[in-house]
Amino acid sequence: MTAPFSDLPLKPALLTNLNTLNYTAMTEIQQKTLPLVLDGQDVIAQAKTGSGKTAAFGLGVLQALQVERFRIQSLILCPTRELADQVAQELRKLARAIHNIKILTLCGGMPFGPQIGSLAHGAHIIVGTPGRIEEHLRKGTLKLDDVQTLVFDEADRMLDMGFQEVIDTIVDQVPAQRQTLLFSATYPDEIDSLCARVTRKATLVQVESAHQADVIEQRFYRTESFDDRLQMSQRLLLNDKPMNTLIFCNTKRETDEVADFLKQAGFDALALHGDMEQRQRNETLIRFANGSVSVLVATDVAARGLDIDKLDAVINFHIAKDPEVHTHRIGRTGRAGERGRAYSFFAEKEGHKLLRMDLAQDPLGHPDTPPSAEVLNQSPFQAPMATLQIDGGKKQKVRPGDILGALTGGERPIDGKDVGKINVLDLSAYVAVRRNVASQALKKIENGKLKGRKFRVRRIRG
């Protein structure tokens, strides 16, 4: 039984806001870490994505914050820009009842100049990626002398991405007298050495990450060649018809090859990896999340920060090296009470990885039987939505309500049920609409006006 947030010694404004957000009972990770965090202790927490860890460290950061001191008091490091944006968004939501708090994101892939301008105006909390934070420190545009709380979010992925030296450089410029909170989905050996360097007398909290067999159905298929795996992916997608599927590959090159193969086979598939331009990555994530792409092929690192409410299936193109990474991957499906499916491909030589996993079944001796090759005669299903991109965003004062109004008002209105997610970025906006009304929706925005002016719009394909 989890305890209510009201059991915690939080500022009244934070508790009131948590009530309005319907955050009543704490999740397991929040219940185990928040009392320690609020007590000022260093904490190392292992918990999977979706466990409520952002609020676990976020409430601690906001409780300790002195708004009247306009100094950078907290630094939160994230492996990717997507995750940093997500964390900053959640913090702003949690801080709504406390006025004049300034939270700034500093990430790579964004222009450097405007960030310098924002820093010149000051901030209370910085959320950013290690590379960009280190660049600001090197150029003297960022000072961390007043930091009281240092947070590492998804520390395992920062180490996977090779940020070890950069992290050490940043830590050297943060006061030694501080609170350090380190959150990680998995706990490889490298985390131990990082913790030893950055924390003092930290308490380790681990939340059970095993998934119930009745929530996630796991299947294992023996596949000896790359081509076998490609065909197996196609057969599973055609046979089981998951609405959306995340395929994990070990390398960037593999993600491109798998996505290209599935695209050629007629699926709405896209690749996601670190070598893509930021604009392209944003677009890919938006399209997968809004239902206009049904298959996303990604590396572990790129998939961090991916916020999908309901994911039907996960395919492990190769078995993960670490059992905890496997658990973390498959934990992206079967959420919010929904059933999920996880398919894993393995070759004979990967047997040692399977033996390290705590599995109810014996994949080595009794692999699952793949769907018949006859399913290859079927046509691939199409993603239910299409995405329109509008060349106007926050900077042009465009809001989601303006876009929804333009589509559902006037002549030949589109039913609101046919409009999906709307994402408004700084200079552009994306709206998902049912595929069968995409042409009509395009014409409505093309011929109509948003904020009293015309904007260019296009349907994103491919």
TrEMBL record:
Superkingdom of source: Bacteria
NCBIfam families registered for this protein in UniProt: PRK11776.1
CDD domains from the UniProt entry: DEADc, RRM_EcDbpA_like, SF2_C_DEAD
SUPFAM superfamilies (alphabetical): P-loop containing nucleoside triphosphate hydrolases
UniProt GO molecular function: ATP binding; hydrolase activity; nucleic acid binding; RNA helicase activity
Residue ranges of the motif Q motif: 3-31
Family according to the record: Belongs to the DEAD box helicase family.
Protein name: Superfamily II DNA and RNA helicase
Keywords from the named record: ATP-binding, Helicase, Hydrolase, Nucleotide-binding
Pfam families from the UniProt entry: DbpA, DEAD, Helicase_C
Location of the DEAD-box RNA helicase Q domain: 3-31
